[in-house]
Write a structure and sequence with these properties.
heterotetramer; A alpha+beta; B mainly alpha; C alpha/beta; D mainly alpha; C: alpha/beta; Rossmann fold; six-stranded mixed β-sheet; globular; D: mainly alpha; MetI-like fold; 2 domains; two-stranded parallel ribbon; 64% helix
Chain lengths: 611, 312, 565, 360
């Protein structure tokens, strides 16, 4: 029972040192990149993993973009964006009235070498694509992108239903609309015409995967991506470090200068440094996610990273006073790439809500008054630090279907008009507490839900509260954890909330579907249900890109302005700052990363990093 | 002593059960729906149902609780819902960086704190003593957030003495390059309260009868402080260290987010944001167990410092 | 006779909280001759300890100021001017000290051997091994059994007496010329006290040292001292050879001290108090007349206790519990208007008896018959009626009064609870009357306990009990913490109240003389057992049991004629 | 009790006010220079928040009186790149607005709308280039924000500490005094709470409060107070429990039992006043602790709502401002918080010394 050993506090120290020594024994992987061209950058958020069919976040997808090859892709330099083949022979046009899409994979495309192939070279075949598409619908994968192939491909929904019934999701059972014609050819048959379908195949996660790799690494497909792309995952410390290295088996690709803009210096530089070379040129890419803005920015300024994408808005005025590089940045030979991102932010009203919802004149007038009361110029100037364009419709520039001439007075900040509208519909102060009340006389207090740990969301809420107070409306802003916010929005348990949407593919439809009535509980968080809008939407789907379709889009945009299910926000402009030794930099609006088309002046990098 | 340890371990069970119930109640009952986070930006009811089924959150609460308890007993918490990474793997890999920061912090804080405390206790009542205590109070009154923001800016960026952020796989590189600034910050912040506390421990002892005896023996003031007083003051100091010991396994999420340290604190924060229940539950249970085991270990270690302690 | 130490004109002041200065010692002078024992006697606050501590300069540096002109000459060297280094050489080697509380005076985390050998290594330059061997010899010399094993023990593993022996071993380790013993036996039981006194006397002789013995207890002084110095309020009232002090005290204060303390051999109607000597009045007849004590056959029995027992339960191991008996089958009777004395050493269970019979502890067995009702079997509600009829006065007057209550609140509370008096006004009047009765001014009603001295507080505690007009009053070491002169006052008060209200007392004390003085019947307890119950005169004159004899034999006898011879 | 006594007029004639322990403590405190200076500083802050609460000062803190990041007056000449942007608002495109009248249900009332609009005057207040201690990103006066922020932060700190103290004291008293089964239950409760990492506890409570409909009327500052108060009581519990155990065995409590005082009376009339100084010291220590915790909550986005301001939200905002050279918001919030917290801590120390003079 009693310890006779004389223990002194020193034993403590010894113990702790022992623990230390153990920690020190961790294998020190000193990957010394003597000759290698190494790129180091930060991601704004942590990745989740690299199983293309299981992921959604842009950072994980961005990594997949470099490990896997989608069938088709976007031309690197062409603006507006243009689809080009990547591993297929041609970009299919919708046959049979936009219901059939057939891809012919080029023979001789091989997967990167991996132990799972047991030393044999593994060629990419059409079956791999079929397998990947079926994976999207496999309940076991819980794919966030399963909606891409829902209610579209002939026989696929029935196949899934049957699998659900039998309890076995059998990949070997053929699906009529998902036909492997020969070793290299796969053909899709759709239930309804859908010309946007082709874009799916340029998405970096709609990529063929090797079944034996998926099944072989079944327990951790997230950590064992095996693809045909230019890079392989060398090292992955989750949420801390991602290292990509050149795939030695990669066939190589070249820069297509055909669509380059001769007036664009970035294009010209890309051609100068990358033209006629077999790409990729970077040997090793090290990525660390840094979620806090200050350290991410300071790390870049400290030359710890090659470039910084989506520089936090707060720092931009200092680096780009009046749109020009600051003297400090000039001294560092820094360059800036400004990107009008294919994304839109907006505030959504819950149309099912008794206060902000409804389709009566009074309801419409109330929402429109709220929109008019919101000072969007301040949003741009202060929340976005001038790095944004006012959104005139949900469709951002650079997206097919964007109409540069479309803008409406109903989106222009005008508190006088807002007040007039509120007065007109009886939203006046009835109980004399200084705040407007509902026409019924009941007190009016709006709630706005925003994401708890996001400073810009808070600022947005602050702006709302301020603007509404100016027109006499009381608003309460509630900070909610991300998961709760999603839940509340999905089930319509909110009045107002802020959202952003980035294009999955460059077509206006990707944005306009967000208000399609039947998409309520799916993606239509506004729960907007207007038969006229739905009619226009379904009609537009059946038509390929044409002036006729643009007209339909314009009509839909007008309805959005009139019924105001949203208060349109902005299209953000992102500033990517690049160190001088990074050569041929360009940012594609839809694709996530630039690693495939990039070079580094290793000597300049060494000199620069040491400064 | 064996019986004592067995009894203490036995007593942990109801506490652990309470932790389990509280966490289960807080997160399963009232927390967000993980299915929605995982479902993606375009989703439908069927898919959400499918996800809920896969996660088992469609089961009745009692069943989920049963599964949870089974997980605890088998030490198998399954996989993270968000990243599909094995939860045990998450905990194991994250605790290393956290300890790399926190062990030096605790060591330095304790050692420096004790040394300074002896110093000021020796000169108690003088101007030096009062100024030191004043500095401590002022230092304690500034928010940790301010320290981090300012220090990262000044020492990491302006002066460039340390990297702004980062972490590597090499322990040596971490401890030499990346860890010093966060460690120094944490030490600086925790030193002031420790110093004040330790000083009061020393002063408590200085007025004890045995100190008078030691002086009556003819011992020098230095020997009295360094031998007789120190050894006795180590008992409450050890208690204090014992209290903060479980904390080193949690780490500071502020430090970890600002300095990009892939530690446990940051992981917990992310897990909560993502409603990643398996990670939250496992982390909580693990930390609760660590807390209890550490407390037990400290109590047993007491025996070594304080011969009066009887373990029964 | 040559003096080893001369204290000349010593003055010590204390800086108190808030800048006030307290003069603890006011210019005292006394000498300590070689090879003799000097006793410094006085009540608390007399400055006796301060005088002794200033010899070795162990007073708290921040507060104590030694008056200029003071001299402490040790072999002719003024210690007050010595350097710190010189003082360190002297302490523990030339002059060593033992203190009142051996438990707290030993460092709890170092072994006995470590602490004894430390002083040897420091002053005698011994190696660890030599020091260890010598320590063993020293422990042997001070009478610690199995010294080799005890060297590795920690202080808490020793009994109080052994701890004090260790302190003594440490003190004599370097053959000091002077040993200062600051109340070394006050915290000890009477039998142990006797042993320690004998040990000090023996060592004084064998080591040829001088002893400065500080105590409040004149009886102890009589046993040991050659010279006696009596102090009061920082001044020396009288000093001289022991014989002279005890036989022909000159100063009234000395006389008072000698008379106030109850002695085993005498039992006056009233104890004399200091004022009786200091004032003009002098001794009254009551101080000389003897009181007869003892139960009479026709005494009405108020309380009868049968086979009372109390066990405490200790948790052990995983589920086991161990019974520790504190009181075993105690039976006794209490007669109306009489006092039952309960004596025993610490841990004998005497206090537990008191607390258990009034249900402050739950009893494990037995009966407490009060008015024929077994109090132990009553429900909480029924017991309430009896609660006020048995009351208790605790030992520590500083702890038993709620410091946040005014005296008025303290006195009114029981009356309010038991609905005594028809309204608040009447209760206040009753409280005022009681205050007066216990000898406190009415203005005390509005004051807080901390404004009163120990004796006054004990009076307030007694008044609190009186508000309920109890039949039985339990005095649990109620006068033990008081100075001799105050003790006499409180004892007189208790006696007066008993005479007036015909209350019965259960008087619990370790002080055999006090018990002898106040009790009619005495019950001796040891380790939870009742050793002996008898009328007090009988038990003191004619103890039946061995234990009782041993106990009585340990009482300091004060000045003995034979010693002088 | 004392109320009973003072209302008693018959005993008045010889009534002499005798200093109670609190009075004595106050006397001791008055002698403590550092304590008194701290008291003055704390009182100044309290006066300030009373002023801001009643609207005497900082009433217009939310008014945008300056340009974005207006320079402090003492840096009037400094370049302000952030404001430049705000000034040069890009003119709207020249293209005509799209006509909506054919599908707009409001179209019939366009005319009435226009007329009403014309009657409403909108005046734009001029924005100042500099503000006394600079402006924030919206152009609000940082000094006024700091004052208003002090109100919120101190309010949060005080009330959260009050809740925590009440919970901790009640549970601690029950556990320490009663012991036994009740004590075991409380200990269990305490162990459960203290075994869960604090940050996790805070996040969990925040999640519960934010999503629970029952808390709908309870959001904003009260929610922050509730989160901090309900999670922060464990330390107080521990101390109060120990105090009650200690005092429970003291003789004065035994004496109270002997005279027949009930459990409740012994706990709350006898023991509680004797440990009240511990409660008070704990209360003030927790005020400081919670003022600091509010900063962390704000950093996590769980702090006070957007229409209020606290030091925490200011610091959270100021996170990225230091890097762009706009240090004044960080300084204003950081320094005012440091001053108050320092003064409060020192006052607490002095208070403890005054109430319990044994501890030096």
């Amino acid at each position: 029972m009693r310890w006779q050993v004389r223990k002194s506090p020193h034993d403590w120290v010894t113990l702790l040192f022992a623990i230390f020594a153990l920690l020190a024994l961790q294998p020190a992987t000193l990957a010394h990149a003597a000759e290698k061209k190494t790129l180091k950058i930060a991601f704004r958020a942590a990745e989740t993993g690299f199983d293309p069919q299981k992921i959604e976040d842009r950072y994980s997808v961005g990594i997949c973009e470099n490990i896997f090859d989608s069938l088709i892709t976007y031309d690197w330099l062409a603006r507006p964006v243009k689809l080009v083949p990547q591993i297929v022979e041609a970009v299919p046009t919708g046959e049979e009235g936009g219901t059939r899409f057939t891809f012919r994979i080029r023979p001789g495309i091989y997967f990167a070498d991996d132990p799972i192939f047991k030393g044999k070279r593994r060629e990419l075949v059409a079956r791999d694509m079929e397998y990947a598409i079926k994976r999207f619908r496999d309940p076991a994968n819980r794919s966030p992108y399963s909606w891409l192939f829902e209610d579209r491909v002939v026989g696929l929904d029935e196949f899934v239903a049957a699998a659900k019934k039998s309890g076995k999701y059998d990949y070997d059972v053929p699906v009529a609309g998902l036909k492997v014609i020969d070793k290299y050819t796969i053909s899709f048959k759709l239930k309804e015409p859908d010309y946007t379908f082709i874009y799916f195949f340029a998405m970096p996660n709609v990529v063929p995967v090797a079944r034996e790799a998926i099944e072989g690494y079944a327990s951790d497909t997230m950590g064992h991506p095996v693809g045909t792309g230019p890079y392989v995952l060398k090292e992955w410390v989750r949420r801390s470090k991602i290292v990509l290295e050149k795939n030695p088996d990669y066939r190589g690709h070249v820069l297509n200068a055909q669509y380059a803009d001769p007036a664009d210096p970035w294009d010209q530089e890309a051609i100068k440094y990358l033209g006629r070379k077999t790409l990729p040129l970077i040997d090793r890419i090290e990525i660390s996610p840094i979620e806090e803005e200050q350290p991410r920015f300071l790390a870049f300024m400290n030359r710890e990273h090659e470039y910084i994408e989506e520089t936090p808005f707060a720092f931009v005025p200092q680096l780009l006073p009046n749109g020009k590089l600051s003297p400090e940045m000039q001294k560092r030979n820094m360059r800036v790439f400004r990107e009008e991102a294919p994304e839109t932010t907006w505030d959504v009203f819950n149309l099912d809500d008794t206060v902000v919802g409804g389709y009566q004149s009074q309801n419409i007038g109330f929402r429109r008054a709220l929109v008019l009361a919101h000072d969007r110029e301040q949003e741009i100037a202060i929340v976005r630090r001038g790095q944004a364009l006012a959104a005139q419709s949900p469709v951002p520039p650079g997206i097919i279907g964007f109409d540069p001439t479309f803008h409406a007075i109903e989106q222009e900040y005008n508190p006088a008009r807002a007040k007039a509208l509120l007065d007109m519909f009886g939203y006046i102060d009835k109980d004399g507490d200084g705040w407007r009340d509902l026409p019924s006389g009941a007190p009016l207090k709006l709630t706005y839900k925003y994401r708890a740990n996001e400073e810009s969301a808070r600022q947005q809420a602050e702006l709302w509260a301020k603007c509404l107070a100016d027109v006499g409306i009381r608003m309460e802003a509630i900070a909610v954890q991300f998961a709760d916010l999603l839940k509340d929005r999905k089930v319509g348990k909110y009045q107002m909330s802020g959202i952003a949407w980035t294009a999955d593919y460059p077509d206006a439809q990707n944005f306009l579907q967000l208000l399609y009535g039947p998409n309520t509980n799916i993606s239509n968080d506004a729960r907007f249900k207007l038969p006229e809008y739905d009619r226009l939407y379904t009609q537009a789907l059946k038509i390929p890109d044409s002036p006729e379709r643009d007209q339909l889009y314009r009509e839909m945009n007008r309805i959005i302005i009139v019924y105001a299910p949203w208060r349109l926000g902005v299209h953000r402009i992102f500033n990517h700052f690049i160190n001088q030794w990074v050569l041929g930099y360009k940012k594609h609006p839809i694709l996530f990363t630039s690693f495939k088309y990039l070079d580094i002046d290793a000597a300049a990098q060494k000199a620069g990093m040491q400064q | 002593m064996g019986a004592y340890i067995v009894r203490r371990l036995w007593q942990m069970i109801p506490t652990l059960l309470g932790v389990v119930l509280l966490i289960f109640f807080l997160f399963n009952w009232v927390g967000g729906d993980p299915a929605l986070v995982l479902a993606g930006k375009i989703t439908n009811a069927e898919q959400i149902e499918n996800i809920r089924k896969q996660l088992g959150v469609d089961q009745p609460y009692w069943y989920q609780l049963w599964v949870f308890i089974k997980q605890i007993v088998t030490f198998d918490f399954g996989r993270s819902w968000a990243t599909n990474e094995a939860v045990s793997n998450i905990l194991i890999t994250r605790v290393g960086p956290t300890l790399t920061i926190m062990i030096p912090v605790l060591l330095l804080e304790t050692i420096i704190g004790v040394i300074l405390a002896i110093g000021v206790a020796y000169v108690r009542g003088t101007l030096t003593d009062r100024i030191t205590m004043m500095i401590c109070t002022v230092a304690m009154s500034i928010s940790f957030l301010v320290y981090i923001i300012v220090a990262q800016y000044i020492f990491g960026f302006q002066l460039g003495w340390f990297p702004v952020q980062g972490w590597s796989d090499s322990f040596t590189k971490n401890i030499v390059t990346y860890a010093p600034l966060p460690i120094l910050l944490a030490v600086f912040v925790s030193l002031a309260p420790s110093l004040r506390l330790y000083r009061s421990f020393f002063l408590d002892e200085v007025n004890q009868d045995y100190v008078r005896t030691a002086r009556a023996k003819g011992l020098s003031e230095k020997t009295v402080m360094m031998k007789h007083v120190l050894r006795n003051a180590m008992i409450p100091i050890l208690t204090n260290v014992g209290i903060s010991l479980p904390g080193i396994f949690v780490g500071s999420f502020l430090l970890e987010t600002f300095f990009s340290i892939p530690g446990l604190g940051r992981e917990i924060l992310t897990a909560v944001n993502r409603s990643d229940f398996p990670v939250i539950k496992a982390a909580t249970v693990y930390l609760a167990v660590v807390t209890m085991v550490v407390n037990l270990a400290v109590d047993v270690l007491y025996k070594a410092v304080d011969p009066r302690v009887v373990l029964k | 006779m040559e003096n080893i130490l001369q204290v000349k004109n010593l003055g010590v002041k204390f800086r108190l909280d808030g800048g006030t200065i307290f003069e603890a010692v006011k210019g005292t002078s006394f000498d300590i001759p070689r090879n003799s024992t000097v006793a410094l006697v006085g009540e608390s606050g007399s400055g006796k300890s301060v005088s002794a501590m200033s010899i070795v300069r162990l007073l708290p540096r921040e507060q104590a100021i030694v008056a200029p002109g003071s001299e402490v000459l040790f072999n002719g060297e003024n210690l007050l001017n010595a350097t710190d280094a010189r003082m360190r050489e002297i302490r523990g080697k030339e002059i060593s000290v033992i203190f009142q509380e051996p438990m707290s005076s030993l460092n709890p985390v170092f072994s006995v051997g470590n602490q004894v050998s430390e002083v040897l290594r420091l002053h005698m330059g011994m190696s660890m091994r030599q020091a260890w061997t010598r320590s063993e010899e020293l422990l042997n010399e001070v009478g610690i059994p199995n010294p080799k094993l005890r060297l590795n023990s920690y202080p808490h593993e020793l009994s109080g007496g052994q701890q004090q022996r260790v302190m003594i071993a440490m003190a004599i380790a370097c053959e000091p010329k002077l040993l200062i013993a600051d109340e070394p036996t006050t915290a000890l039981d009477v039998t142990i006290q006797k042993q320690i006194l004998d040990l000090i006397a023996k060592l004084q002789a064998s080591h040829h040292m001088s002893v400065l013995f500080i105590t409040h207890d004149l009886a102890v002084v009589g046993e040991i001292a050659d010279t006696v110095v009596v102090m009061q309020n920082g001044e020396i009232k009288e000093q001289g050879a022991a014989k002279q002090i005890f036989e022909t005290p000159q100063h009234p204060y000395t006389k008072a001290l000698l008379m106030c303390r109850p002695s085993v051999s005498k039992r006056p109607m009233r104890l004399p108090v200091i004022d009786d000597f200091m004032g003009a009045a002098g001794l009254q007849p009551a101080h000389l007349a003897q009181r007869a004590r003892g139960y009479a056959a026709d005494d009405e029995i108020v309380l009868e206790v049968k086979n009372l027992s109390k066990h405490f339960q200790l948790k052990e191991g995983l589920f086991k519990k161990r019974d520790v008996p504190a009181v075993k089958d105690a039976s006794f009777k209490l007669a109306r208007g009489k006092t039952l004395g309960l004596v025993g050493e610490s841990g004998s269970g005497k206090t537990t008896v008191g607390l258990t019979l009034m249900r402050l502890h739950s009893a494990s067995g037995g009966e407490v018959l009060f008015d024929g009702v077994d109090l132990l079997k009553l429900s909480e509600r029924d017991f309430m009626k009896y609660k006020r009829r048995i009351q208790i006065v605790f030992q520590n007057p500083y702890a038993s009064l709620n410091p946040r209550f005014t005296v008025g609140q303290i006195l009114l509370e029981p009356m309010t609870i038991h609905k005594i008096g028809k309204d608040e006004q009447e209760r206040v009047q009753m409280a005022m009357a009681l205050l007066k009765r216990v000898g406190m001014p009415e203005v005390s009603f509005y004051k807080y306990p901390h404004e009163f001295s120990g004796g006054q507080r004990q009076r307030i505690a007694i008044a609190r009990c009186l508000t309920m007009k109890p039949d039985v009053l339990i005095c649990d070491e109620s006068v033990s913490a008081l100075d001799v002169s105050v003790q006499a006052q409180v004892l007189n008060l208790l006696q007066d109240l008993q005479d007036e209200y015909k209350m019965s007392y259960i008087f619990i004390s370790h002080d055999l003389a006090v018990v002898k003085y106040i009790s009619d019947q005495v019950m001796v307890m040891s380790d939870g057992d009742v050793v002996e119950v008898a009328n007090s005169d009988e038990i003191y004159l004619n103890p039946k049991q061995e234990y009782t004899k041993k106990l009585l034999g340990s009482i300091p006898k004060g000045w003995q004629e034979d010693k002088a011879a | 009790m004392s109320a009973v006594l003072t209302s008693n007029t018959t005993a008045a004639p010889i009534h002499q006010a005798s200093p109670g322990l609190w009075t004595l403590a106050w006397r001791r405190l008055k002698r403590d220079k550092v304590g008194m200076i701290s008291l003055v500083v704390v009182a100044f802050f309290l006066l300030m928040i009373v002023g801001s609460y009643t609207g005497l000062i900082a009433r217009n803190w939310s008014k945008e009186v300056g340009v974005s990041y207006a320079n402090p007056s003492f840096l009037a000449g400094a370049v302000n790149l952030e404001a430049a942007k705000t000034e040069s608002r890009e003119g709207a495109a020249k293209i005509p607005y799209v006509d909506l009248s054919d599908i707009d249900p409001l179209a019939p009332r366009y005319k009435e709308w226009e007329e009403r609009t014309a009657k409403i005057k909108v005046t734009e207040t001029p924005r100042s280039e500099t503000l006394l201690f600079g402006g924030d990103k919206w152009g609000r006066d940082v000094l006024q924000k700091a004052i208003k922020g002090a109100q919120t932060s101190i309010f949060v700190g005080l009330f959260a500490a009050l809740i925590a103290t009440i919970i901790g004291t009640t549970l601690g008293a029950l556990s320490g005094y009663l012991g036994g089964r009740v004590g075991d239950l409380m200990e269990w409760f305490y162990n459960v709470f203290s075994s869960i990492p604090y940050i996790l506890l805070i996040l969990a409570f925040a999640a519960v409060f934010a999503s629970s409909p029952a808390m709908a009327d309870f959001r904003g500052v009260p929610m922050v107070i509730a989160i901090l108060g309900l999670t922060g009581w464990t330390g107080i519990y521990r101390l109060i429990r120990a105090e009650f155990i200690k005092h429970g065995s003291r003789e004065y409590v035994k004496a109270a039992e002997a005279i027949g005082a009930s459990h409740g009376r012994r706990m709350f009339v006898h023991i509680l006043p004797n440990v009240s100084h511990v409660c008070l010291v704990q209360l003030s220590q927790h005020v400081v602790q919670f003022i600091k915790a509010e900063v962390i909550l704000s950093y996590l986005g769980l702090g006070v709502p957007v229409d209020a301001v606290s030091w925490g939200t200011m610091l959270a905002e100021a996170q990225s401002e230091l890097v762009i050279g706009k240090w004044w918001q960080l300084a204003a919030a950081g320094i005012s918080m440091a001053i108050l917290v320092t003064a409060f801590s020192m006052l607490t120390d002095s208070l403890r010394d005054a109430l319990d003079p044994k501890i030096k």
